[in-house]
Write a structure and sequence with these properties.
Layout (H helix, E strand, L loop, with lengths): L9 H31 L2 H16 L2 H8 L12 H8 L12 E8 L2 E7 L5 E7 L5 E3 L16 H9 L1 H8 L1
Antiparallel strand pairs: 1-2, 2-3, 3-4
């Protein structure tokens, strides 16, 4: 015959299992949500550059110049269409249609720093602003050979160097 205290604490053990599973589920959802947010953070700016690449692949340099943020009523001072065609049109230093593509994406203050493999010899770092989606060459500080995000906190650098490698897979 079962004793009076044989079932003592059985309900508490069940409640503890439910609480532990609930806490683990909330943590898992938070981690997956944060990772998804981080990976898709620059999606819009990456899409702008993909449109730019698609225009170049079609041979539509006027359209690519418009996506760059120039053309029409908005003329780019210091980067005229002739210079643009020299940089991005057909030629030995122009884009190789089999190679051109995004290789890296990094969130910077009010813009996104995108690395674009133009041809086998040429890699460009592009700067796409959040507010206007204008594309430009990334600013390079004097004494440096490549652009980097100014005023970036160490945690952002660490995230880009670790989890950011997953973003590179999504860019292809």
């Amino acid at each position: 015959m079962a004793g009076y205290l044989d079932q003592y604490g059985a309900g508490e053990e069940r409640r503890n299992r439910i609480i532990i599973r609930s806490v683990l589920a909330v943590i898992a959802v938070a981690v997956v949500s944060t990772l998804t947010w981080y990976l898709l953070l620059n999606h819009h700016q990456e899409a702008v550059v993909r449109d730019f690449i698609a225009a170049l692949k079609r041979g539509d340099t006027r359209g690519a110049y418009r996506i760059w943020g120039c053309g029409g009523s908005n003329q780019c001072r210091g980067y005229e269409y002739e210079k643009f065609v020299k940089d991005w049109g057909p030629g030995p230093d122009g884009p190789d249609l089999n190679v051109i593509g995004l290789t890296d994406s990094e969130q910077c203050n009010d813009a996104v720093l995108l690395t674009l493999q133009v041809n086998l010899k040429r890699v460009e770092q592009l700067w796409v602003t959040h507010d206007s989606d204008n594309i430009s060459f990334a600013p390079v500080l004097p004494g440096y050979t490549s652009a980097f995000c100014p005023q970036q906190i160490p945690y952002e650098i660490m995230a880009h160097r670790t989890v950011g490698k997953l973003r590179k897979i999504l860019l292809k």
